[in-house]
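so i finally got all the pieces together for this one. its two components total, 496 residues if u count the protein bits. some of the lines might not be protein, just check the labels. i wanna see the whole assembly predicted at once instead of chain by chain like last time, that was a mess tbh
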Amino acid sequence: MEIEGYHFPDDLYYDKEHCWCRVEDNVVVTGTTDFAQKMAGEIVYVQLPLVGKSVTQGKPCAALESGKWVGRIYAVVSGKVKEVNEELEDTPDLINGGPYEQGWIFKIEPSNLEEDLKNLMQGDDLVQFIKSEIIRVAAEKK
Amino acid sequence: MYLFDLGKLPGQQSMLIFHALARMGVEALVIVSPKNPLVSIGYFQDAGREIDLSFCRENGIPFMRREVGGGGTYLDENQVFYQLIWKRSNPRFPVEMKRIFEELSIPACETYRKFGIEASFRQENDIVTRDGKKIAGEGGGDIGACMVLVGGILLDFDYETMSKVLKVPDEKFRDKVYKSMEENLTTMKRELGDIPPREEVVKALIHEYEKVIGRFESVALDNRIVERMKTLEKKFTSDRFLFKKTRKVPKGIKIRGGVEIRYGIHKAKGGLIKTVEELEQETIKEIGISGDFQFYPKDDLSTMEVELRKTEFDQGKVNNKIEQFYEEHRIQAPGVMPEDFTKAIVQSESEGSE
């Protein structure tokens, strides 16, 4: 779906840190949203988590830099890092070009998926949250 | 929101303070200068690649990695740092990175103006004078549940020591960095002829921040914060954190937004080519080429350096210029083709790595 110019695929789950996840069989693919990449601007560095590292839902586990700002990337669900998108190390702006496709950041082998998904947003909850964020951005611009 | 007007703190503490407060979720403005010099590198930098460790150790200059962006820099008591910490959820602050820097740089710009220096914010995140010289750099980041913006008012700047603390390929490059900094970086002392009293600058800075954010409640450091700083110091100065391998391979040194000194090295069949180039807005402003290759007529190497000025820093454009030069000047350089020079000058990502 499109929310005021920001793209949010319907089949994904979202958290309030502007990260997304897609459930593919027993693996969860994660990344940062279109809204987040637009707020950040051109991403120049990405620090990926180590494969095998345990991550906890809502806790930072990776980082990126845009315009001398270091932003954190949060684990959307708990589990173990199964794979990372190594291409981002040389071409971090893949996130700007396609945050949900070639700009995916890492994959997690979830440990508590069913419960974790209950804490994430889709549909109306997401629209409401993003609209409140957009209002904040629009207020800044006035 | 609290105000910590801390005067001068021992080197690393002046930077540890904002890391501690952000982790503790304390919204505040910190004004501080380091009592003794230190070197600070950006979060995505590796101390071993960015800093001349021997120089720092021989001269007792500590170094630390910070959790905000930007590059390596030399800090001393002639810089007044402003560190603003706020909770990510605080609606009073911008969300968009560009706006964070733009809006929260206003107090620093106004402070300079109060002392008669016309300063304004310029992408990417520098404060510059009317003639485009950098007079403050800023960086920021998410730390804990907070966001942090850090910048420094330059009362004065030690250009020479700054050029010495950086890891560079050779002295020629270091000299170039020094000269470019002198040309592109200015200070209150340079602009005004004298350093204004620190307390007056601090007073103005706080006043300007209050105009943007509202009244501060002035507080002092308490034991809880000091303890947190001590804990963090262990992490921030540990080899594991300082020498954390990152993929950020330095290919040069950024002097200010749009100005960069880069170096290149390429092994051609006919010998090693080394280059040092100053780029301004992605165009070669000046270039120096050296190495152990043969080049005839000899004097034409410096002519080629002059010809390369004002060339866009683009592989195709640089190569065309060199090919044309070879042809027009009938260059004889055994085992060194125009593309070898191009490779040294405009290195690709993989060639640029160690």
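The interface with chain A takes residues 42-44, 67-70, 91, 94-101, 103, 123-125, 137-142, 246-248, 349 of chain B (CB under 8 Å).
Chain B has a mean pLDDT of 91.
anyway lmk what u think
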